[in-house]
Design goal:
binds P-hydroxybenzoic acid; globular; 390 residues; D-Amino Acid Oxidase, Chain A, domain 2; binds 8-demethyl-8-dimethylamino-flavin-adenine-dinucleotide; six-stranded mixed β-sheet; eight-stranded mixed β-sheet; FAD/NAD(P)-binding domain; alpha+beta; 2 domains; 12 helices
Amino acid sequence: MKTEVGIIGGGPSGLLLAQLLHRQGIGTVLLEKHTREYVLSRIRAGVLEHGFAKLMREAGVGERMDREGQIHDGIFIAHGGVRERVDLKGLTGGNSVIVYGQTELTRDLYDGRDRMQGTVIHEAQDVTPHDLDTPRPYLTFRKDGESVRVDCDFIAGCDGFHGVSRRSIPPERLSEYERVYPFGWLGVLSRTPPVSPELIYATHERGFALCSLRSPTLSRYYIQVPLSDSVDDWPDERFFDELKRRLPPDVAAAMVTGPSIEKSIAPLRAYVAEPMRHGRLFLAGDAAHIVPPTGARGLNSAASDVYYLYHALLDHYQRGDDSGLDGYSERALARVWKGQRFSWWMTSLLHRFPDASPYDRRMQAIELTYLFSSRAALASLAENYVGLPF
Ligand code: RFL
Ligand code: PHB
């Protein structure tokens, strides 16, 4: 097989890049380790920046998102038994976020790929990039017992945190930065009306909680749990009891509970690999960096990588200009680190840290007091939450 851009990973990053390139007549072959059903069963992000939404439209797959996604002009932060609103729209001069599930967005991207008859090879096993620092890189993989080779001009590593792309960069060429948090998020999806039309991020002495949603009939809730806990420790009743204890009394009283449709624990971790390029391999999305989900940045950071990489590849193919490819890593990382900073700040502000000293706790409390006493501080939160410009 032969193509212009070989893409490893059929998550949002890989699919979006493939779709954008395909529409410009640039050939792609997309290799995904799992089945489509498996990819679509992962419940993850829910909050999109408008920059991401614009890219979805540019890729010709924004129609359902524009119809079904909900515009959110604000979020709440709950602390000390009360809820305070962060007026995203007012504080950013008119910006907002869109609540639309990653599952739906991924489904739209697969449907778009089908319509354009783009190649997606599911259950591609042992995908391996070769000759990355030569002008003729290639990929090999196994499918139904047969070995296949794909010759490419470039390879996009969009295969998430546990993928093969980043691991194929010689370790001495990579710098890694990491922070592992001593807790995780237990998430529950339930077919119940959301307790609040806008997201509530809650900090409480028992730990962090988040009330999010997917639609007027589908709620997504999270609570901070120790890493030693497993999903079996948390039957639905215990989950909702704990969630309510961490929320202001009026919110807890209004909560409609119901059986969970999905329940999972995600450990919280921050990670960045530098550079995001090795020869003709370009990393994008979770393959290069992850954040704790508190600032809703992960998927949005993936989208900004795709934006830079897409334009760099366009410049290469349409104008013979390689400056975008040469500058890709630096440009992408500049925005990635801002997303890291915001996620680190939101996580530090709102979680219970088991090793926090009394001094640390006072700092956390005064940070919240300051936040809600300063329009400048709130505006800083808001401009980061809605997404800094690409
Ligand atoms: P993905 O989604 O992990 O997709 C990578 C794909 O690559 C495949 N793959 C391989 N394919 C071929 N060969 C191999 N060797 C392969 N190894 C892996 C995988 O099967 C998979 O299909 O990465 P991508 O596309 O970069 O997308 C990143 C996002 O998924 C991620 O950043 C977000 O989900 C993070 N995130 C959130 N981001 C937001 O912007 N807003 C949010 O509100 C938000 N909430 C969240 C989140 C992540 C969460 N979890 C579970 C970590 C909430 C949670 C709970
Ligand atoms: C979600 O709805 O899954 C969600 C929303 C906001 C976050 C993280 C996750 O910060």
